[in-house]
Amino acid sequence: MKGSDLLIAALENEGVERIFGIPGEENLDVVESLRKSSIKLVVTRHEQAAAFMAATYGRLTGKPGVCLTTLGPGALNLTTGAAYALLGAMPMIMITGQKGILSSRQARFQIVDVVAAMKPLTKLSRQIVSPMSIPTLVREAFRVAQEERPGPVHLELPEDIAAEECADVSLVPPHPVELSQASTSALDRAAAIIMQAQRPLLMLGAAASRPRSTPDLAEFVLRIQIPYFTTQMGKGTVPGGTNLYMGTAALSERDYIHEAIERADLIVTIGHDTVEKPPFIMGPDGPQVIHVGYQPATVEQVYFPQTEVVGDLGLSLRLLADRVEGKIANAQALLPMRENILSRVAAGATDERFTPQRLVHDVREVMPPDGILALDNGMYKIWFARNYRTQMANTILLDNALATMGAGLPSAMMAAMLYPERRVMAICGDGGFMMNSQELETAVRLKLNLVVLIIEDHAFGMIRWKQAVDAFPDFGMTFGNPDFVKYAEAYGAKASRIGAVAEIQPTLEKAFSAGGVHLVIVPIDYSENKRVLVDELRERLTARKGM
């Protein structure tokens, strides 16, 4: 048995079914061991896409996704994906190659200290120096990646260690990751505050989307009947049919949902992670805040909860509901604000222009409740976070932590691989799409059913909007595009260009019905960015101050 055989056996022992990446000559022993294993190697066209796919696997399943690259340039191409998983709390294992460490016939050619480079971007970064240590290091890597707070782990396997013959080594059996229980005193204190609140409000954050916690979260909301809002990454954690949803905080302040936030005297944040752009700004005169999470709150200038309930989130919510169910006299005090907030946010959804509101409305019409959207990063992300109504957990995958461009298409590809029976759509701006557009070939090769909606404005739209809002001249943010229809066809995909607003829904329906990989290109009227998100919300704030 070689070191590479032991590595692959250890990965099989962890239940790994796929590895994403681009191997190099330093991985050839690993590739050969993979060839003889039950694990499928999914070759991507860029290492960054492999990391995004592995991280999204972790996000959707709760189990670490695995990606593989060579040394130096290949390994360094994982760094954005590592940061994406670290900030987004997605469990992932990155395995990179390296020149031999016992002897060196190529001097320093291509050698970069990848272990050191990965340390600030991972929970753990280790070089494997002996085949005998592989089973324990792999088990430790998976344990660390899955423990709260989940994230990426890096293992570097030098080529001579991979090729070294070794005696059989026993594999380490996986074991469940146990979570601590919140203290009785913390639960009692939080329950007393909730029952005394005059205008309570719940906020569901990124950690509430963990696959293991969403059933308990939905039950908690239904049991205590307090209205809730979500952060961008907390969308979908409670079924939309509860009629307690107040909105999503796509902005930090001023939006219509902040009318309820400003009125609340208590906000119970569930699974809030301050890596997200603040959903509201805490101040000395604001509401009291209870933090319920897997881990203690990270105290920030804008977030400093007065009470914390820390432990297994699902169990904490069950125990908290046991204490307060039926005893919250003012549970629905803020609920009368719901209709006005949601109607104001939804205004313009049927406009006869290519507005963001119309686009969100039409996409929602063609997506079933279990359909999955994977958003890249751009101005449209704010509109989808704000306007798109979700009914199931993890049916809108957006990144409000690292907020990197280029992740939308690979994330959607992973979702389509995991859930081939569900509709999956990637939503990308023309800027973000071109950052990883080469993965169309991967998607076609894998025979995925996937619709990619490209929002075309020939610009880095969000930065251009910020430029205009801050009164800078319009400069340096525009570009040209290829003919996206021909571009898709060159990869073996199908494509359609929308020319009229009325074509949006039928074109998307046709794309889904046709199957395979289908690009749909739609123009956008971003004049709504300033009219709604700046002027209208500023007028709302001015009117409230004048009351």
What can you see in these coordinates?
- Helices cover 39% and strands 16% of the residues.
- The protein is of the alpha/beta class and 547 residues long.
- The strands form three sheets. Strands 2-1-3-4-6-5 form a six-stranded parallel beta sheet, with helices on both faces.
- The radius of gyration is 24 Å and the shape is globular.
In terms of structural class, how would the helical and strand content be classed?
A: alpha/beta
Mean pLDDT: 93
Query: Compute the gyration radius: what is it?
Result: 24 Å
User: Into which percent range does the helicity of residues fall?
Assistant: 25-40%
Distance between the termini: 77 Å
Q: Give a short account of the largest sheet.
A: 6 strands, parallel
Number of helices: 22
Annotation, overall tally of beta strands:
18
Q: Proportion of β residues? A: 15-25%
List the strand order in the largest sheet: 2-1-3-4-6-5
Give a brief description.
This protein has 547 residues and is of the alpha/beta class. The chain contains 22 helices and 18 strands.
Q: Characteristics of this structure?
A:
six-stranded parallel beta sheet; 39% helix; globular; alpha/beta; 22 helices
